Amino acid sequence: MTTAVQAPMGGTANFAGGSSAASGLALVRVTIGAMFVWVFFENLGKGLYTAAGYAGLIRHYIEASHSPAIWKAVMAIAANHARMAAPMQGFTEISIGILLVIGLLTRPAAVVAFLFLGSLWISEWGTSWIWELLVPVLASLGLAIGRAGRAWGVDALLAARQPASPWW
Length: 168
Fold this sequence. Notes:
Layout: E1 4-6, E2 12-14, H1 20-46, H2 51-64, H3 69-80, H4 82-102, H5 106-123, H6 131-145, H7 154-161
Antiparallel strand pairs: 1-2
Helix pairs in contact: 1-4, 1-6, 2-3, 2-4, 4-5, 5-6
């Protein structure tokens, strides 16, 4: 969907890729993507993608957070299956990061980022400042809604060939 509007100086702006709004969304996309890549390497260095490291962190969330009991039960399942969950989380974090940085399949990557960060936000309730994760959670949702890969991203090239695709 492309919406052209009259720009203040008489030109037109294209909200699908060339406007300052699209550039702003692209900047947020690259920032959230870089955050995921950074966190991947930080967690890798801390050993959080090992079964013991991952299970220890999740158990800390279970003990220290104010998450709902049902969510703590879900976290306990993840901690009990840390040999599988830890590398899956690492793969998810680095994949989301790379896809957002390069702007490829931005909408699905942003939806996964929204869900992933939202689940982390619930897991950390009461252990950190409430806005620490809520801002990137909502920013990720905005990336999906705003088709943020259509500026400064590979999605722009794909959209030129198939503009109606919901994937970019």
